[in-house]
Design brief:
Layout: E1 8-15, H1 22-32, E2 39-46, H2 47-50, H3 57-73, E3 82-85, H4 91-100, H5 105-109, H6 112-120, H7 127-142, E4 147-149, H8 155-172, E5 180-182, H9 217-225, H10 242-255, H11 259-265, H12 271-286, H13 289-298, H14 300-329
Parallel strand pairs: 1-2, 2-3, 4-5
Helix pairs in contact: 3-13, 4-7, 4-14, 7-8, 9-12, 10-12
The structure holds tryptophanyl-5'AMP (TYM).
């Protein structure tokens, strides 16, 4: 294949903490699945990023592997996508160090996630939490990614990766592809079912706030039935109805229906009917994920083979960028 015919690169990943939830799935993972037709795709289990928060080592090892299996169970094909472990590729922390010398304290302190996380973990505001976006920039830039499919909350991090790439290129020439964040049509920011003003997250203490990828059908429907809705009774997409807006976004994302179609479908019906329909549609969309997950967990040989092969590929591709960077900044040759 000639240079011009080469596919563009898609790069993304998730932290290896806890189980994946509906926000991770609709905001990111679901959009990754069909991309390999058009892009060469690299998706990481971002276990180095997870170390910014204290982990229990045996549990952490299990969670990180489980994340890989959840990716595959949800439909991400590890034979068509390079799905690998960030911590198995030394180029990531290596480039992160170099890029940290091209990143300003001021820009890092403006990151909203840093501000939020340092409040959340006030007893452990470590330097890793602060330089987190630099490691993320290294992840993306090592693979020369053109697009980074993420949920809305990661937009600022991809933008700083762009800034770092442009700054580096302006000094050393065209070393990095400048990446762009890309988002799905709906569900860019899935909100908590218990409080639609808050983002859905893994660590929510309210059991009903978050739908997990591996929840069973009854649990999913029960969580949607209990979802917090707004005053009034009409199903309309309006910022005055954040609860209904969130449910409509989720429903649109799993059914492919437009807001107008949804409003029509539920005209004259109440919140109860709508919540039931969203619960059923989400459990239909996730049906099979849990069974595939259980089967794959019994066949770790296959998963381990995929991890090994993809790690190799990731090392090769990232190694090429790292060599170029080493040369450009003037580090001596490795003999
Ligand atoms: P993380 O692990 O917090 O989230 C993984 C992906 O899920 C998306 N997401 C959501 N989308 C919609 N609604 C929500 N409620 C919701 N919650 C999470 C996130 O936007 C993300 O796409 N820093 C990243 C991981 C990372 C990364 C990277 C991503 C490390 N290196 C390089 C892209 C490229 C993170 O913490 O995502």
């Amino acid at each position: 294949m000639s240079e011009e015919e080469k596919k563009k690169i898609s790069y993304s990943g998730m932290q290896a903490t806890g189980m994946l939830h509906l926000g991770n799935y609709l905001g990111a993972l679901k959009n990754w699945i069909p991309m390999h037709d058009e892009y060469e795709c690299f998706y990481g289990v971002m276990d180095l990023h997870s170390l910014t928060v204290r982990q229990d080592p045996p549990q952490f090892r299990k969670t990180a592997k489980s994340l890989y299996v959840q990716y595959v169970a949800a439909g991400l094909d590890p034979e068509k996508n390079c799905v690998y472990f960030q911590s198995h590729v030394d180029a990531h922390p290596y480039l992160s160090w170099i890029l940290s010398c091209f990143t300003y304290m001021g820009e890092l302190s403006r990151m909203t996630q840093y501000k939020a996380k340092s409040e959340q973990h006030a007893d452990n505001v470590n330097a890793g939490l602060f330089t987190y976006p630099v490691l993320m920039a290294a992840d993306i830039l090592l693979y020369q990614a053109t697009v980074v499919p993420v949920g809305n909350d990661q937009k600022q991090h991809v933008e700083i990766a762009r800034d770092i790439a442009q700054r580096f290129n302006s000094i050393y020439g065209d070393v990095f592809t400048v990446p762009e964040p890309v988002f799905g049509k709906n569900a860019r920011r899935v909100m908590s079912l218990a409080d639609p003003e808050k983002k859905m997250s893994k660590s929510d203490e309210n059991q009903n706030a978050t739908v997990f990828l591996l929840d069973d059908r009854d649990t999913i429907i029960r969580k949607f039935k209990r979802a917090k809705t707004d005053s009034g009774s009409e199903i309309i997409y309006s910022s005055e109805k954040p609860g209904i807006m969130n449910l409509m976004d989720i429903y649109a994302s799993v059914t492919g229906k437009s807001n107008e179609e949804i409003e029509k479908e539920f005209s004259g019906k109440g919140y109860g009917d709508f919540k039931m329909a969203v619960g059923e549609a989400v459990s239909d969309a996730l049906s099979g994920v849990k069974n595939r997950y259980d089967d794959l967990m019994k066949n770790m040989d296959y998963i381990e083979r995929c991890i090994k092969e993809n790690n190799e590929k990731a090392r090769y591709v990232s190694g090429r960028t790292l060599s170029k960077v080493r040369r450009k900044v003037g580090l001596t040759d490795i003999l």
